[in-house]
């Protein structure tokens, strides 16, 4: 059973701090990795994707991928209360089939 | 640009009935995927359609089926509903097959009683 694992949280960080969200995956064949944000009662929205080892930055968000360790992370700099949501990690398995983690709930404290 | 439209937003059905959910993808998007979301299991992949063909299928029983029309609109059907089918059903569309991520619709909340 190919899996994507995330700590369910909640992860609480103070406003202005860096939030670090982590994800591990079991399928060594996974090529693409995605981070989605889901507010309570809403549908997931794409934050960013990463294919290559290393870091990818987009505004306050940085995705990090380490394929040797099968590890993906998302850093949120200068966290804001509006960042409070559930963050879903997804990895492709086979031909563009996504496996989602169950998500990490982030709480940014004002 | 209109987003992904799912109808209906809410449904209440009785065990044993069948249900059809509809999804209109973003204009120009040819790939449509369906996911089931429950508090315990998270997002589970149901199937993916691209150019009217089912390209991928998840580990769901045959009671779950779908199709895609020539205008890329998609429908999902669940027959002989069970209590455990109560969930949020999300449709997601993309230009290519999820290569650059999906845009999700607002979902259909199905309650089976």
Unreliable residue stretches of chain B: none
Indicate the proportion of strand residues of chain B.
over 45%
Strand content of chain A: over 45%
The outline of chain A comes out as globular
Task: Describe the protein in words.
- The complex is a heterodimer of chains A (110) and B (113).
- Chain A has 110 residues and is an all-beta fold.
- In chain A, 0% of the residues lie in helices and 55% in strands.
- Chain A has strands at 4-5, 11-14, 19-25, 33-38, 45-50, 54-58, 61-66, 71-76, 85-93, 97-100, 104-109.
- In chain A, strands 2, 4, 5, 9, 10 and 11 form a six-stranded mixed beta sheet that branches.
- In chain A, a hairpin with a 2-residue loop joins strand 6 and strand 7 (61-66).
- With 113 residues, chain B is mainly beta.
- Chain B has strands at 5-7, 10-13, 19-24, 31-38, 42-50, 53-57, 64-68, 74-78, 87-94, 103-104, 108-112.
- At the A-B interface, strand 5, strand 9 and strand 10 of A face strand 4, strand 5 and strand 10 of B.
